[in-house]
Amino acid sequence: MKNLITLDEFIIRRQKDFPFATGELSGLLRDIGLAAKIISREVNKAGLADISGLAGQENASGEDVQKLDILADNLLIACLKNSGECCGIASEENDTFVPILGNKDAKYIVIFDPLDGSSNIDVNVSIGTIFAIYRRQSVAGECLLEDFLQDGVEQVAAGYVLYGSSTMLVYTTGKGVNGFTLDPSIGEFCLSHPDIRLPEKADTYSVNHSGYKEFEPAVQKFIDECIDQDFKFRYVGSMVADVHRTLLKGGIFMYPGTTKAPSGKLRLLYECNPLSFIIEQAGGKASNGSQRILELGAYKLHQRTPIFIGSSHLVDRVEALIQTRVLNVEH
Ligand code: AFP
Asked: Which of 1, 284, 316, 318 is the most exposed place for a label (fewest CB within 10 A)?
């Protein structure tokens, strides 16, 4: 049998690489791993149990909430309360941040999208959980909004769980990216994709084409170039799945702004920042068209941003087209 390394074992080994590590971050990652296993179980029986379908309420962004969204949100909060390392959370499903009063002096806060792509649940398409971990800014006591409104560069760890043909957890603590596949027979995430790097080859683009007419001309030109170069087009409509494919196969995923929605659709704190940290750690880039995603200032929890993420030279190209366009308009 090949040497199996479980997620918990891997986290412990990595912790030993940091001489002064206290184990708090490791504890948090293990909590998220546990929540991911339970969510995976629930997602897999979505068609069996009466848990799929609309919950009859809207989230902070005015979108329909699925029952599984709420279940995943509650599970993550419960698991993060457990180990005592997290003093507060913010998530797509909550209008404002939620202090964890029992852990009010803990060092970390966690921001997450419990089930991204949840409009795909009922049609059995891949969905995911995305998370970002930050050190709190406030000194102690109940956490504050400023603890959550940090730039993406301040993330100490980030990752996602993809509930697809298998369940995978991919994360970084700023020292490369590693992927673990859930072996349901033993209930463990096992290291399956060590030290992931974006491949050199990049001939896939991913965007919701129905927005084409409303994208700015520079983005339209970039898409036209992809088509002219016979790039493959792939679009799942679950950001985790689209970014995961981009991470493993190379290429670019885009959710640009449109004339109707100049900031696009995707959320900075719990979609764009964590996935940008992962992609950068694997050798790629993430931009809003003119600025690095990880350096965009956050001024509210549910802030949106356009995003171009993936292989560096493709992100550079779209940025160059946008920049040329801006200069032409200015002169
Ligand atoms: P849902 O969670 O409402 O399904 O939205 C998913 C998502 O936030 C992201 O995962 C996708 O990349 C994007 O929206 C898809 O949006 P479009 O349906 O506009 O292409």
From this structure: 1
